[in-house]
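Good morning,

Both structures are done.
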Amino acid sequence: MTQGRGTKFNYDLNFKETDFRKNPELYRVGKGEQGVLLVEPYKSEILPHWRFKTPEIARESSEHIYGLFLDYVQQKDFVGADMARKFLQMGYTRSRRYANHRTGQKYKGPVPDDKKGQSGAHGREQLPIDPDPVKAESARIFKVKWDEAKENPEYQQLMKEFRERCES
């Protein structure tokens, strides 16, 4: 099975009280970055290291998070490895957003209350592009580490085994 397929991410779980290290069978890969800011204890372990303001900060951040990714893979902790991969992906996507929109605002107007926490325009107009080459370099740095993570053969094997065991 390839990335992004399988059972949908379950947003109905009690994330404040669920320890996914103790209950990995409750985790679902979902698509892209789904759950990146919900799944504990991994969010608390990885988020403090996630930064992209400058290329130097992005390099340090992406290398640290990739190191965590490798540690999780070595421990055969698929959920941790997948969360680290999601943080690397989010480093890329958020840097790209700021590379294209200096304010970080991609769409005009507020997100409707019933759509908060979901991605997408939700009918809002996209703002014009205002390029920031510094953030573009931060995005490039995160993209390299994100690609390394998702192409890691041990991670791919862990994902295959996890999906066969928990998402079938």
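Second structure follows.
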Amino acid sequence: MSYDSDVVSATGGVGEADWDKIIKLCNRIRDSVGPTSMHQAMQSVMKRVKHGNPAVQIHALTLLEACVSNCGQDFQKELTTQFFQTDIKSILLGRYTDAKVAQRLKELLLSWSSEFKSAPHMKDLHKFMEQLRRDGVNFSTPAAAPPSSTLSSSSSPFPATAQTTQTSREEDDLRKG
């Protein structure tokens, strides 16, 4: 039973995800029987997650998220397989991986780790997350760069926000004074 053509169809569009196709595919996967079928579905999805086009990869991650949420424990267990983890590691540690794809993948992994933290069938996912951290994957969200107007070129020992607060107080004192 191959899912390749359905996965390509559900992840091939430009723009928004095709939720009709995603839901139909999730129903097909959920209604299939056995771990072999779930593994084949995961293989098909991961082919698209590893695709060279970031737009396709983002759509594939949307599909993967939908499958994890809707296809049951047998599909969820695929997140703990060596096959899945090897692919994810190569994407996250790959030097040519699109930053948005990597960030979305890390968000999903964090979400699943939190969602399944007490699920016995998912304990290997937590081990995998720790291994990724040891391998250098940073799961913190990228901090927004501070606006350039708050940065100071002076050699003040205060951070820019503290210096800005101090300057505001001094200006208020001068107005009052």
